[in-house]
Amino acid sequence: xxxxxxxxxxxxxxxxxxxxxxxxxxxxxxxxxxxxxxxxxxxxxxxxxxxxxxxxxxxxxxxxxxxxxxxxxxxxxxxxxxxxxxxxxxxxxxxxxxxxxxxxxxxxxxxxxxxxxxxxxxxxxxxxxxxxxxxxxxxxxxxxxxxxxxxxxxxxxxxxxxxxxxxxxxxxxxxxxxxxxxxxxxxxxxxxxxxxxxxxxxxxxxxxxxxxxxxxxxxxxxxxxxxxxxxxxxxxxxxxxxxxxxxxxxxxxxxxxxxxxxxxxxxxxxxxxxxxxxxxxxxxxxxxxxxxxxxxxxxxxxxxxxxxxxxxxxxxxxxxxxxxxxxxxxxxxxxxxxxxxxxxxxxxxxxxxxxxxxxxxxxxxxxxxxxxxxxxxxxxxxxxxxxxxxxxxxxxxxxxxxxxxxxxxxxxxxxxxxxxxxxxxxxxxxxxxxxxxxxxxxxxxxxxxxxxxxxxxxxxxxxxxxxxxxxxxxxxxxxxxxxxxxxxxxxxxxxxxxxxx
Length: 501
Hints:
By secondary structure, the chain is of the alpha/beta class. A six-stranded mixed sheet has the order 6-7-8-3-9-10, with helices on both faces. Strands 16-19-20-13-21-22 form a six-stranded mixed sheet, with helices on both faces. Strands 2-1-4-5 form a four-stranded antiparallel sheet, covered by helices on one side. Strand 4 (59-64) and strand 5 form a beta hairpin. Helix 15 crosses helix 16.
């Protein structure tokens, strides 16, 4: 099969106050899996949005086999065989439509434009065939709103490969996937390579990239840094290229002093996933909640925070039983949650950094609980931006224009302003680069050193082992084991996480 070469030459693009890309060059071929990596804000996603037609005000040129391509819209990009699966899964799907309708959406739109009738039998049959070829056990007649995050990701990938795809861009594709689902994705990628499809991976998970990719391009601060064959480099070398320096120890030294029991959950159930969960957190302690994707970690975090209706059981803070009917009650009584899906639940993407940082504690910034004191709000926002090292042109910049890691810092920063007593982190490093991860770990350690109770929910075992003092393992909505982190390992955690007795 003849390979097609993609060349992006001298690509530059600016947004208000930010030059996101500066004369970037990028090249790859069909039949090759190519990693595109860099710290948050390096310009990876921006470059791929140029290629996919999402941004049209760039300068520079795009070529396929030395023929110049005019890509200024998603439709034009698809005509050249470029498909993209974005990191924000929920915003890319139509929840009230079926799986089949979402997969075959482009075909349905084309039929509508031709004023022809939609062959529903064919729509459902074709979409089910695509899912079956991916070994994904989802009914094409199911509503997308009923799917898990991992299943939604698979539907997006199915949509992308349903068309004539020459280059498939995957933006953080494994973030919501379990180990088995990730293995299945890699099988699909290998199959696509055999069919002469070029796959471009945007990811921060270096071990996965070194497993599945042939080539790697590193970007930093909107510029091209280096292109390497995976076989000619190492993970530590790539991290140095990303950061422009050697990487220090990722996890700060443990200096938190663990005190008395501060927070306790007793027999908590949500009537759906979480079943009779009990655990406690001491002052100054970081407690992990771990398990595989689908174990119930996120559902437990939401139940504690009052974001789930019909929760039974008790939350006890400083020996006082809390009445938590909704998130407002939780915040008012000293509980904070940094949710897994930050863009959907953790931040107001269309508002400024300042508004996001102060929104969880507006009373503090009002005169007489009525009028907002903008000077006080802006002062606090600037102090938070400085202390958390949030990369933003201004406190007035829209959060949607920040990188994923800086959005996550904003999501955390708003709770630091509230000075809560219990902090719940649900997959806080998802889609975050190694440099920003270290910043987040230091933030969390700072909370523990200040005597707060920290709950750290994650399926990243290296993080659970690196940051927590104790860990509770979940399986099928229940806590099945409590372990002291310093006395356990990945094998033991995986054993209980997979249902071991």
